[in-house]
């Protein structure tokens, strides 16, 4: 089965990102396909490479990056939500006159159309959030 | 978005479930943004309002004192995007002392069971 996953909450504050990650791992282990993971609302905060959790805690951001690299998963961050919350790649930083970018490897910034497309192209869209 | 998708083929039933008050959290506003962008994909769209989500449609919202933009007029513009199926749960309205006359757009008021049935028919359910 082909899945698109929507993550609506930020890392560490909320279980949603952890649950979504675990869901992706389990689905992949069963031979399913993850078409896309779409990060929305505070979920965009899963995409900052500046995250520095204590060493004995899980690194939620790196975990997503590693999963994307290993399984070639499309991690998409909503541009409008990202702009509000200060998540930027090099292009976005330049366009908005910012002095830095912070997007983690494996993530890309794009529009909400990517979420709708995920819903159209996948067998199931699963939302993780409040 | 890919060309093949825009040129037709798959039309799915998309349902946006709005459960939160319009202010206090950003969910309602960002849900509306998805609906507006999603309209370009010409899918079969329904909006459902349950729980505190019914407050999103209440007339006469005044946000001046909380420093937030009042985005409620946008619900009236949904018609122009061919988003015309708005469903509101009856119990949620009544529990908050509201009726259909308090709402700023035309909606269909449904029982909890009818809403459940509607959601069962959907291909994609996005909850906010």
Do you know the CATH topology of chain B?
A: Hypothetical Protein Ychn, Chain: A
User: What's the gyration radius of chain B in Å?
Assistant: 15 Å
Unreliable residue stretches of chain B: 1-6
Count of DSSP-assigned helices of chain A: 5
Give a verbal description of the structure.
- The complex is a heterodimer of chains A (130) and B (128).
- Chain A is an alpha/beta fold.
- Chain A has one domain (2-128): DsrEFH-like (Hypothetical Protein Ychn, Chain: A, 3-Layer(aba) Sandwich), CATH 3.40.1260.
- Chain A has helices at 16-29, 60-71, 79-85, 90-95, 113-121, and strands at residues 2-7, 33-39, 75-78, 107-110, 124-128.
- Chain A has a five-stranded parallel β-sheet with strand order 4-3-2-1-5, sandwiched between helices.
- The longest helix of chain A is centred in the N-terminal third of the chain and has 14 residues, at 16-29.
- Chain A is globular.
- The model of chain A has no long low-confidence stretch (mean pLDDT 97).
- Chain B is α/β, with parallel strands linked by helices.
- Chain B has one domain: DsrEFH-like (Hypothetical Protein Ychn, Chain: A, 3-Layer(aba) Sandwich).
- Chain B has a five-stranded parallel β-sheet with strand order 4-3-2-1-5.
- The model of chain B is unreliable at 1-6 (pLDDT under 50).
